[in-house]
Amino acid sequence: MGKVAFVFPGQGSQAVGMGRAAAETDAGRQVFARADAALGDSLSKLCFEGPEAELQLTANAQPAILTTSIALLHVLDRECDVTAGHSLGEYSANVAAGTLTFDAAVALVRKRGQYMQAAVPVGVGAMAAVLGGDSKTVERICEETGGVVTPVNYNCPGQLVIAGEADSVARASAALVEAGSKVKALPVSAPFHCALMKPAEERLAVDLNAAEFRDPQRPIYVNVEAAKVSSAAAAREALIRQVSRPVRWQQSVEAMLEDGVSLFVEIGPGKVLVNMIKRIAKDVERVSVETPKDVEAARAAIAKHRSA
């Protein structure tokens, strides 16, 4: 019998209307009410009704995605063996593992979004998706470009993201196109997961060090090392370090596969992670829980998996 992994999406999966169906259940409604109370404003109204421009702001998108993910987790009402999240999604993974309370996590990610946005003025940094390039070529070209530009998301084979100073990202993008990759500028307000985020990391470290962490009830595969952690201290340190370091998602999925995971359940808005996982291991079983309508199929997959 293989293991079941719950995986949680990061920023970029937000959309007006997300979580509305989950909040129509008792379990989901309670999670949104707790988020509103913890933040002191109506995050639920912003998720359900918008406006979209306000929802897209980093300081709103991050708690909105976390809250929607945890509401759906409560509606699903099943256990996993291991968990992981992509960037912001690692906070959802910590809640799922019992490392952080939801109330603490939603307050932390609001600050995380604020600090990340404040670290780099709009227009100074940039991000771009690199399609079709291998990681070694992307790393080499970024290194040769000069300035601040590095690979920041290792998503799946043939899909990386680079970030850094806008001019350096533009020059690296041109070189990558010349080397045969397709490059697409991303409409983001800050260059996440690169060295320019160090000021945000330092500010967030103060809040994370003040927060109560417990040893996780199940292993969490963290972004920075693409390896599992099983202590409160290691989980906290991973959340601090990930702010200015790459998200090693492909390597995290590969580590989970190596450790016996054979069912991935993505919980939260969108289907970004199950699509990436398909490109990493096309034959592994995967299901997505985006609304309560998806819950029965996910429960059936988990039950089938448990009895295999």
Could you walk me through the main structural features you see in this protein, from its secondary elements to its overall organization?
With 308 residues, this protein is of the alpha/beta class. It is built from 13 helices and ten strands. The chain has helices at residues 26-39, 43-49, 52-55, 58-76, 89-96, 102-119, 135-145, 166-178, 198-210, 232-241, 249-258, 272-280, 295-307, and strands at 3-8, 82-85, 125-131, 149-156, 159-165, 182-185, 220-222, 227-229, 261-267, 285-289. The strands form two sheets. Strands 8-7-2-1-9-10 form a six-stranded mixed beta sheet, with helices on both faces. It has a four-stranded antiparallel beta sheet with strand order 4-5-3-6. α1 runs antiparallel to α4 and α4 packs parallel to α5 (89-96).
End-to-end separation in angstroms reads 6 Å
Beta-strand share of residues = 15-25%
Secondary-structure element series: EHHHHEHHEHEEHEHEEHHEHEH
Q: Give the helix tally.
A: 13
Q: Helical residue percent?
A: 40-55%
Major beta sheet summary: 6 strands, mixed
- On the 0 to 100 scale, the average pLDDT is 96
Going across the major beta sheet, what is the strand order?
Answer: 8-7-2-1-9-10
Q: How many strand units?
A: 10
Q: Which class of secondary structure composition applies to the elements?
A: alpha/beta
Shape: globular
Radius of gyration: 18 Å
Low-confidence parts: none
